[in-house]
Amino acid sequence: MSAKIRKLLTFVEETRLEMGRPVEPPTRRAAAVAVIENPFAGRYVEDLSELTQIGEELGRLLTERAVAALGIPGDRAESYGKAAAVGEEGELEHAAAILHPKLGAPVRQVLGKGAALIPSSKKRGGPGVALDIPLGHKDAAFVRSHFDGMEVRVHDAPRAGEIVVAVAVTDSGRPLPRVGGLTKDQIKGEDGLR
Amino acid sequence: MPEVVLRKRALIIEEIFHEGGPPAAVPLKRGAALAVIRNPFAGRYVEEIAHFMKDLEPLGIEMARHLLAGLGGDAKAIQGYGKGAIVGAAGELEHGALWHAPGGYAMREVLGGAKAIVPSTKKVGGPGTRLDVPVTHIDASYVRSHFDAMEVGIADAPKADEMLLVLVMTTGARIHNRAGGLKASEIKGEDGLR
Q1: Number of C-alpha atoms within 13 angstroms, CB side, residue B97?
Q2: Using one digit for the tens of pLDDT, what is the confidence trace for A111-134?
Q3: Residue A85 and residue A109: Cα distance in Å, rounded?
Q4: Residue B189's pLDDT is what?
Q5: Please, which residues bridge with residue A135 across strands?
Q6: What is the CATH number of domain A5-186?
Q7: Within 13 Å, how many C-alpha atoms sit on residue A92's CB side?
Q8: Strand A120-124 relative to strand A79-86: parallel, antiparallel, unpaired?
Q9: Is the CB of residue B12 less than 8 Å away from at least one CB of chain A?
Q10: Which residue of B has its CA nearest to A24?
């Protein structure tokens, strides 16, 4: 069964100055967000595979939209993250069913690679609840310059029987990174960590 | 003449398919362009501020073009608009009023003439403050189906010495509008009201 989508949103942020210093090139990140009906709202359902299928479908749709919003080919993406907020008549486990089993594979297809775990967050909340989508380098989770987060929210969602699902993609790390650690030009890209 | 120092810009696009009723044949799009700039008058009382409106004109045009592109690029598809400003805590509400003329002028310029006043709102606030930007029909303020609003904000803006400027455009009426009143098809288009 496919997702019943009420709304789609995209958010693009571009930072050109940080503490008065130019960020060159500007750091850019995009989030694509879907507001969907929660097919299991208001009741306990043991088998969550329907939501898992929805996760797979949204993984492709949202990643394609985020990359398009940045105006880059998928393989130019540097970091990524995902998150979901379940309305009050749903379970946290519903977010897990969307995010974890199958959403990642199509994300990686769109981006060409993606050896690293896709960092994620989830919560239950009412309309307008803020999602802080964690971000990490897509090929090496330990790249310190790319540990980041992007806040998104949809003022009228999730309603009680809805789920907000978000995928974030960047073409850069934090503005003016200078806390050391593994840098992106040192990535081996074999184990997803370094 | 204070220059316009841009720290960050953001683009938000919402695509609305339904709100519990029958899905629309053409989804409604709402878009917002946001710019975070330094407030040249922060931290002190400055009597003569009106000259800054002229400085904001090029930024307004750039934001309006960016927003139109994000909504598909066809000026004829735009039916509603609005604008707003959030002034950081070291500034005055009056600084936000500087956005009225350049923000409105920019949208009219890019849309090729629009008769109605651009509805607006403003406030003083800290980082993450949300603003409900009012939206009305671009040619006739009384068109009831197009009375709308879009909530926007940026997690890390405005800082105390910044201003967050917003332009909003929409491609149509509220998704399930049925509250009567003047219809878009009944616009005379002479006075900007009806």
Answers
A1: 5
A2: 998 999 999 999 999 999 999 999
A3: 24
A4: 85
A5: A148
A6: 3.30.1330.110
A7: 5
A8: parallel
A9: yes
A10: B7
